[in-house]
Known about the structure:
Blueprint: H1 2-37, H2 56-64, E1 73-78, E2 83-89, E3 95-102, E4 105-106, E5 124-128, E6 133-134, E7 142-144, H3 150-154, E8 163-165, E9 174-175, H4 178-193, E10 199-204, H5 210-215, H6 222-238, E11 244-247, E12 250-253, E13 256-257, E14 273-274, H7 279-295, H8 316-323, E15 336-337, E16 346-347, H9 354-361, H10 398-402, H11 438-458, H12 466-473, H13 501-507, H14 510-517, H15 522-530, H16 538-543
Parallel strand pairs: 1-10, 8-9
Antiparallel strand pairs: 1-2, 2-3, 4-9, 5-10, 6-7, 7-8, 11-12, 13-14, 15-16
Amino acid sequence: xxxxxxxxxxxxxxxxxxxxxxxxxxxxxxxxxxxxxxxxxxxxxxxxxxxxxxxxxxxxxxxxxxxxxxxxxxxxxxxxxxxxxxxxxxxxxxxxxxxxxxxxxxxxxxxxxxxxxxxxxxxxxxxxxxxxxxxxxxxxxxxxxxxxxxxxxxxxxxxxxxxxxxxxxxxxxxxxxxxxxxxxxxxxxxxxxxxxxxxxxxxxxxxxxxxxxxxxxxxxxxxxxxxxxxxxxxxxxxxxxxxxxxxxxxxxxxxxxxxxxxxxxxxxxxxxxxxxxxxxxxxxxxxxxxxxxxxxxxxxxxxxxxxxxxxxxxxxxxxxxxxxxxxxxxxxxxxxxxxxxxxxxxxxxxxxxxxxxxxxxxxxxxxxxxxxxxxxxxxxxxxxxxxxxxxxxxxxxxxxxxxxxxxxxxxxxxxxxxxxxxxxxxxxxxxxxxxxxxxxxxxxxxxxxxxxxxxxxxxxxxxxxxxxxxxxxxxxxxxxxxxxxxxxxxxxxxxxxxxxxxxxxxxxxxxxxxxxxxxxxxxxxxxxxxxxxxxxxxxxxxxxxxxxxxxxxxxxxxxx
Length: 560
C-alpha cells in the first residue's frame, strides 16, 4: 500500500510537471502566433520588423552579463533624464541592467496622466502582455502601457493608447527612434518566448533618489512620487520586480493580507497585510530619510520648477543632433521633429534654429517667451526713441523693474526730471542684483513719480500701445504739455539747478515709502513667480521661502 501510494504521488507530481511544461510551451506558441499574425503583408518575410533578430552585439552583451536571450525583462522609464532602461534576469536569479536607451521625445510635464487629451505620459507601474505588443503600429513598432491600471481607475483617470513606440513623436507617449524600439520590442518578444507572461514597466518622473525628491519638494505630486519610490526601493533592495497590488487608492508592494480570505482592491481600504521580513523596515527607513531631508531643507536649497511649460523633453543626444545633423545618434530621425518648447517642427536635415534649441534646453519656458517684444521706436519718432524711457532705472523703483525688458538708456547722463542733485552728488545706479540704500531710495522716489508723465508721453501716438494701456489701468490722464520735452535726447543738455527740497518731499508721501520698504522689490519676486516655486537667487529665496504659496491653479493635480 505504501509503495502504491508513493507511486501515485510520484505520478501526480510528474504529471503536474509535464502539465506546467506543456502550458509554458503552449503560451510561447500562442505568443509567437499572435506576433506573427500581426505582421500583415510582411508576414511572409523572415526579416519583417516584428520578428527581426537581436543584433550580434546585443546578444554578446546579454551573454557577457550572465543573461540569456529569453530571460525575463523589466523596463524602467525616467522622464526628467529622458532615459529608458531594460533590465534582465541573470542566471543567478537577480535582475541587472542590460542597456540604457535615450528617449527621443516624451510629452506633457512631470506628473501622472489624469485625463484623455492632457498630453501627459503616464507614471506608475504597468504590466505588458503579448496582446499589448503592436507590430502594426503607425509609429513603426509599439507596445501599449495598459493605462489606466487599477490605481488610475480608482482615481477616475482616463486615457487610451499610451505607448512606447518609434518615430520620435509623442502625444502622451514615450517615443524612441525606430531602431531603438525595434530592439526593445525584440527583447520583450524573446522574454515571452521564454515563458514570461508579462513584463513590468516602471515609469517615474525622475530617478527616485532622495536628492531628487528634495529638489521637487514643492511639487503637488510629491506624495504620489514618494509612493512610487517605495516600489523603486523594493526593486533596488530585492533585485527583482516588485509584486504590485492596489488598496486604499494607493500602490502596495510585495504585500500579503494577514487574512488570506481578504483581497487587496484599489477602491477599498487596505486590510492588514505583511511584507517579507526586513523589507518593510528597509523601505520605511528610506521613506523616513526622504521626509527628514525635505523637512530640514533650507531656503537656499534649490527647488525645481513645478511646471516647465516645455511640453515634455528630449534626450540631449537628440538635441545635439538637431543642432548638428552630422552628429551620430542611436537611430534615425524622421524628416521633421518638434523639439520641446517649440510650437512648430524643425527639419532634421539641416541645423535647427538657435531659438528652438534654446527653448528645448531651458529649465522653464513661460507664456511670455512666445510673445514677440515690440519693435524699438525709431529715433525720429515723436517723443524720441523708446529707449529714453529706460533712463529712469537709476531710481531702482517699481517702474524701473517693470520696464527692465526695454533697452537701457546710457548711464552717463540722466533726464532733467530725474536729477535729484548736482552732478557731483547725484546718486549712482544700484548694482545688478543688489538693493539701493534707504537714503538713495528716498532721493529716487520723487523723480520716479515725476517720470510717470514722461513714460506716458513716450507712448503717445503709439495707437494703443502697452504704455497707453498701463496709463488707463492706473487711471492716468493725458500728460502735461510741459513734460513732453523731458523725453528728448539729453546727451548734451546741461543738468538744471537743484530744486527746493520741500516740493520733493511732498511728491513722495510717507505711506508710499512705508509700502515700498516692506514688500520685496519686483526684481526679486519676478523670477520666483515665473518658475512657480524655483528660487534662483538668494534674494528671491529669502523673500519667498519654499515658495509653496504661489502654486497657480492648473498645475499637475488639475491638468489644463
